[in-house]
Write a structure and sequence with these properties.
By secondary structure, the chain is mainly β. 36% of the residues are buried. The protein starts with 5 loop residues before the first strand and ends in a 13-residue tail after the last helix.
């Protein structure tokens, strides 16, 4: 018995550093392995709570841990306010220490179970390609794009289906219609990425 699990959703950036990488949006933590996992870590300068340094993450008295939200709607809504269209969504399973809260949970270990589609950074079509503009240190110089908007300016275009397979994952393209409504028409001049 592997213990209790928490099922929920997350959004991730897709980067490129000699090969595709999955990265947490704010701390640039790379998900490792097949299937990809992320282990919660305590920041070097400690957590933003009352627990002593060196405690196991997550803890009740601080904000550490890998965050998972209960609903896909919440993951898409949060990501859309952060950086339009440059995230993939995923179903994840949290294990180890689990601290539940109103919108989801903080967990010790999160494992990606399934990737879900996202919107092109320039339109509301489904993104099927990762456009890479810099072949080194490209965590923040990639864009998720549809084939129609990709153009010819990128150094590489990688099909998202191939990226998913490289991580031992599938993409549930059938979920696109449920996600698409969250994305308003983008203004390319307002887009970072």
């Amino acid at each position: 018995d592997k213990g209790p699990v928490y099922r929920g959703y997350k959004y991730l950036r897709v980067g490129y550093d000699g090969a595709p990488v999955l990265v947490s949006p704010f701390y640039a933590n790379r998900w490792q392995g097949v299937p990809p996992k992320l282990q919660a870590e305590i920041p070097v300068n400690g957590c933003s709570g009352e627990d002593p340094p060196g405690h196991t993450a997550p803890s009740l008295m601080c904000s550490c841990g890998v965050y998972i939200v209960k609903s896909l709607d919440r993951a898409v809504e949060t990501a859309a306010h952060t950086s339009y269209g440059n995230y993939l969504y995923c179903e994840v399973e949290g294990s180890g220490v689990i601290v539940e809260h109103e919108l989801g949970a903080r967990v010790e270990v999160a494992t990606i179970k399934l990737l879900l589609p996202s919107a092109c950074v320039f339109c509301t079509n489904v993104a099927t390609l990762l456009k890479v503009r810099d072949l080194t240190n490209s965590v923040y110089s990639t864009s998720l794009m549809c084939k129609q908007c990709a153009g010819e300016t990128g150094l590489a275009y990688l099909p998202l289906e191939n990226i998913a397979l490289g991580f031992g994952l599938a993409i549930d393209w059938d979920r696109w219609e449920g996600i698409r409504g969250w994305f308003p028409k983008a203004n390319p001049w307002d887009i970072y990425g």
